Amino acid sequence: MRLHVGCAMWTHAPWQGRFLPHPLPPGERLRAYATWCDAVEGNTTFYATPARSTVESWARQTGPDFRFVVKLPKTITHERRLADADEELRSFLEAVEPLGPRAHALWIQLPASFTPADVGALAGFLRGLPGSYRYAVEVRHRAFFDDARSAGLLERVLAGAGAEWVPFDTTALFQSPPTSDAERDAWTKKPRVPRRSSALTDRPIVRYLGRDDTARTVEGWRPWVATVAGWLREGRSPTVFVHTPDNADALVLARRFHDEVRAQVPEVEPLPDPMPAEPLTLF
């Protein structure tokens, strides 16, 4: 029984020398992160398809049970809006192939302008994807959350393709006004949609955004602890990504979330012991 947890990135300046050794060469940073968490969001691929050699380095630094949820490039999802993107998709799939089983899901994040009227395009795109990967879709238009018919339409399309609906839970962030610069920035950029906690597959994926205050972050994820524990008891294998506006403590918070779920479901496998930030000495 596995619960995977992770963050939005594997390298972050506030972690260096505090949680992770510093300095570390680029080819060792993911390896160090993987001693803290066993999953990561592949956000960088949204901006550009990586070189295959880069992805081979990611694979070398992680074990086969590590999970990447890798975002499709914005040229496919936002610029071409899932149409006439065969060449871009082919290049992306060739680049990420070295991940092998680590590619837990290919993540199709759609813009807020993608409405229920566009679901037909998503259905056609999903039908054309290779069956060798799992797929996860994130939508941001309010109608998918406020209108039951729109939500049902999307669920039917996703279920037909065996794809998951990825919720991005920002309710804790928007519960009260921002209190830090990072929170103020997040208020202008993050989607303001209701919490959604239904799983469509045996491998649900959750993105949770808390606050820069740890207590408020932990309070905001309480419903997810119960939901994820329930999924595990049902035999599902969830992956949860913990964000905060500044992400300064995201590594520790992801492990804390794992611990809280494991307290309710003791059969869950523990995370590995994290690599120390300071070299071990004999004295």
UniProtKB/TrEMBL annotation:
<dbReference type="Pfam" id="PF01904">
    <property type="entry name" value="DUF72"/>
</dbReference>
<feature type="region of interest" description="Disordered">
    <location>
        <begin position="176"/>
        <end position="196"/>
    </location>
</feature>
<protein>
    <submittedName>
        <fullName>DUF72 domain-containing protein</fullName>
    </submittedName>
</protein>
<dbReference type="InterPro" id="IPR002763">
    <property type="entry name" value="DUF72"/>
</dbReference>
<dbReference type="InterPro" id="IPR036520">
    <property type="entry name" value="UPF0759_sf"/>
</dbReference>
